[in-house]
Amino acid sequence: MAANNGKRTKINPEGKQTLILVALILLCINLPLFLTPAYGWWSYVVLGISLFFAWFFLFFFRNPVRRFPSDDVQDVVVTPADGTIVAIEEVDETDYFQDRRIVVSIFMSVFSVHANWFPVNGTVTKVEHQDGNFYAAFKPKASTENERSLVVIKTDDGKEIMLRQIAGALARRVVTYCKPGDKSRINEHLGFIKFGSRVDIFLPVDSLVCVKLNQKVKADITVLAKLS
Predict the structure, then answer these.
(1) Three-state DSSP class for 107?
(2) Quick check: 227 and 207 in contact, CB under 8 A?
(3) What is the pTM of this model?
(4) Which one of 32, 74, 108, 182 is most buried, by most CB atoms within 10 A?
(5) Of residues 184, 197, 207, 228, which has the active-site annotation?
């Protein structure tokens, strides 16, 4: 299978209402400036700033079309989010597994693609939203204290992994599309997080982690780990 590296891009449906609101606000700001006889060079400055904001919101809600570059996904965990690896450590996981797990954390800046993809093929067994705070997403306490959505997936050969979508200091909405019983498939969207945020993935302790700290990763393209 040939990889699609995201050159073909759509707008994520999650951004529809926001983009309409931004367009109306910018129109209301700029239209009166150019209808009045007194408009001048400063009107073009405002227009330039408005066009920048319009571009930024279009850029933020971009939704690139991607395909994992291989058909061999047996025991492969694909990165579910764009961003930077900010943590790789063994922890006591207490939300679901109640045992030791390897957690890999991905920080998504405002410039990252904010769509999330399924990391493995399998079945969704648990989805749970938890209210919380809005600390900066790159801080360790964001994983356990921020608003978040928990998704547990059992792979086709019976292994379980857990993914947390975590809100950040700017993010105020975590969207999870799946529900228990749904099929999890690589190349399909799991959800979306608005503005700076974080995704944690909890793996069995015998997993082989394939990424390094501070590495830039690409959702649905980079191999995050291999299950034993």
Answers:
(1) strand
(2) yes
(3) 0.78
(4) 108
(5) 197
- pLDDT one-digit tens code per residue, 57-76: 777 777 888 889 888 888 99
φ/ψ (deg, to 5) at 154: -100, 120
The verdict on whether 143 is a catalytic residue reads no
pLDDT single digits (tens) 162-215: 999 987 655 557 889 999 999 999 999 999 887 668 899 999 999 999 999 999
Using CA atoms, how far apart are residues 106 and 224, in angstroms rounded to an integer? 10
What distances in angstroms separate CA 46 from CA 5, 43, 55, 56, one per listed residue? 35, 5, 14, 15
Residues 214, 71, 102, 181, CA torsion sign: positive
Cβ pair 89, 162 in contact under 8 A: no
Q: Other C-beta atoms within 10 Å of 7: how many? A: 8
